[in-house]
Amino acid sequence: MDVSFLGGPRRQRGVGVVAPFDFALDRELWRWVPDDVSLHLTRTPYVPVEVSLDLARLVSEHETLHEAVRTLTAIAPEVVAYACTSGSFVGGIAGERAMCGAMTTAGAVPSVTTSGALLAALEELGVRRVALVTPYTVSVTRALEEYVAEAGVTVTGCAYMGLTSHIWKVPYRDVAEMARRAVCGAADALFISCTNLPTYDVIPQLEAELRMPVISANQVTMWAALRQLGTRAVGPYQALIDPAARTGPVVPELPGLPDMQGLPDMQGLPELPDEGQQQEGWT
Question: Is the pLDDT of residue 277 over 70?
Answer without folding.
Answer: no
